[in-house]
């Protein structure tokens, strides 16, 4: 029998080791440490808006659980999970504090399952929208700011923060679309599965959770989705450049 509480202790130890390894390599490289600092604002925005979107859409569907718990807020401290935030900052893959929802409160205009799928999709979709917003901001500054600003220390920092925010939002969005518990993708695909496949998926959720932990800790998850993140981030930047 899979022991989740025991597994979490092991998981936290492994995360601590990974973060320490990453931190030691960052401290040995001034450029890497600078990139890390530039990425922090993007991480805060990505996690905050991702979790807010879950709660906001659930609220619009009739569930006020997130509102009662103070999660309908754009205050980052309402949404940051310490471990997930550290993972996103240092390793590029992470999460926020899960928003609690009660599907039984959803409007009866749709099934609870479809409501869950819509609420789950809201987070990753918000990240993709944010990536577009930052892409537009990037090219607005690039087009209208003078060369002196772009080559200044302030300009380099601001453009670096925006670039990092684009990649972080794309990464968080795509990562959460992986159809494995506890990620959003596992709930998004359920309405599209045949009944028998759906039941098998639900009955074997623990196995999928183990697979997720293996993919995540081994780094395979990052390797699998990195090409998708790079492609989508490039595509968003190309679209934004065409718009402007």
Give a verbal description of the structure.
The chain is mainly α and about 240 residues long. It has one domain. The chain has 11 helices and no strands.
What layout of secondary structure does this protein have?
Elements: H1 4-27, H2 30-60, H3 65-68, H4 82-91, H5 112-144, H6 147-150, H7 153-176, H8 185-188, H9 195-203, H10 205-218, H11 220-243
Characteristic key phrases:
disordered N terminus; mainly alpha; 244 residues; 11 helices
Domain count, please report it. Answer: 1
The 3D shape can be described as globular
Helix and strand element order: HHHHHHHHHHH
Question: Major beta sheet, specifics?
Answer: none
Structural class from helices and strands? mainly alpha
- The first-to-last residue Cα distance is 56 Å
Which spans of ≥5 residues are poorly predicted at pLDDT below 50?
1-6
Number of strands: 0
Number of helices: 11
Q: What integer value in Å does the Rg equal?
A: 19 Å
Arithmetic mean pLDDT: 83
The residue fraction in helices comes out at: over 70%
Strand content: under 5%
Task: Give a summary of the structure in a few sentences.
By secondary structure, the chain is mainly α.
